[in-house]
Design a protein that fits this description.
Layout: H1 2-14, H2 17-30, H3 33-43, H4 47-59, H5 63-73, H6 81-94, H7 96-106
């Protein structure tokens, strides 16, 4: 666990998307989802990186962890339409009961 904490601190110092992704993916692979989320929040704000991150989580079956990451990211200053739209898609696939509420709250921020 400390190894991953040191990597997260290193990623914070480097502050590059490439480093955040490497550390995030290593944390996901190790099941360190709290630290993966800390890294992921620095990735999802880049619209061009979102699809790769989503595919990484989904291909490993970590649907709830991915949803939790995007839910946490919605409050970020740099939240963008892609995050809201992708979360709606994830709700439709894995948690349909939450989709209606999400669309009612964020209808203006979802690309449909």
């Amino acid at each position: 666990k400390q190894w991953y904490q040191r990597r997260v601190r290193g990623a914070r110092k480097a502050n590059s998307t490439k480093t955040w992704k490497e550390v995030c993916y290593a944390c996901v692979e190790a099941g360190e989802f709290r630290m993966a989320q800390m890294c992921g929040l620095h990735i999802v704000v880049h619209a061009d990186e979102l699809e790769e991150l989503i595919n990484f989580y989904q291909s490993r079956g970590f649907f709830q962890e991915l949803i939790q990451l995007l839910e946490a990211a919605l409050g970020l200053e740099r939240a963008h339409m892609g995050m809201f739209s992708e979360l709606a898609i994830l709700y439709s696939k894995y948690n349909p009961t939450k989709m209606r509420e999400h669309l009612e709250l964020f209808w203006s921020r979802v690309n449909i």
